[in-house]
Specification:
By secondary structure, the chain is of the alpha/beta class. The chain is 33% helix and 25% strand. The termini are far apart.
Length: 220
């Protein structure tokens, strides 16, 4: 991580008021839309949205899930997310402090999402984060493999499909540390997930959908 968690939190808190207006690129909007579509919660699912920011993904999924939990390190972003939920009369969302590797959440999560945030971590930290998500309570039968791990994890982020071009606008080398698609796929595989879809939005932006693997294949 090129900045500390506290430094990232302060940076995003300072930008919270204008953040939604600034995220207006076609690639960002396409990525967010794909994360929502690939997450596809059913009406009984709890969704955990990590790096939730101002709650764009969490609020978009609230109508299709029983509950959505958003976690972020920035108080300013979380305050903005809570305000948006209140303005829209969305009551099945809850926002609070949480890090990628320590989400501060002990409940069930059938679906985990994250959009445009994990690239702040170094590759080893990304591996740890994905391993943490995979170890969450998936809400299955206690003592069985389906009780460990969310059914689905959807990651939209800055990621490299080829050689990175530092002049592209999707990451800042001084604060961001994107991974290659292959590296991220390996992290999911090592955590016991099958990557079922990779959506290429741009040479440096994509969405990875991973399904939990259980005995006999991935979970249906």
């Amino acid at each position: 991580m090129k900045k500390t968690i506290a430094e990232h939190a302060a940076r995003f808190s300072a930008a919270a008021g204008e953040y939604d207006d600034d995220q207006n690129s076609e690639e960002y909007e396409a990525c967010a839309g794909l994360v929502v579509r690939r997450a596809a919660p059913n009406g009984t699912d709890t969704v955990l949205d990590l790096g939730t920011g101002t709650g764009a993904i969490a609020l978009a999924l609230a109508g299709d899930a029983e509950r959505v939990v958003g976690r972020d390190v920035s108080d300013g972003m979380l305050e903005r997310a809570r305000g948006k939920a209140a303005d829209a009369d969305i009551e099945n969302v809850e926002f609070g402090y949480g890090e990628f590797r320590e989400p501060e959440y002990g409940g069930e999560a059938q679906v985990v999402t994250s959009n445009f945030a994990l690239h702040h971590l170094a590759d080893g930290e990304k591996r740890e984060a994905i391993g943490t998500w995979a170890a969450l309570d998936g809400g299955g039968t206690p003592g069985r493999s389906d009780s460990v791990g969310p059914r689905r994890i959807v990651l939209g982020d800055v990621m490299f499909f080829g050689e990175p071009d530092p002049e592209e606008p999707f990451y800042s080398p001084e604060v961001d540390d994107p991974a290659t698609v292959g590296t991220l796929v390996d992290h999911f595989t090592d955590a016991g997930y099958a990557v079922t879809q990779v959506d290429r939005v741009h040479d440096q932006v994509g969405v990875i959908t991973a399904e939990r693997v259980v005995s006999g294949g991935r979970e249906s």
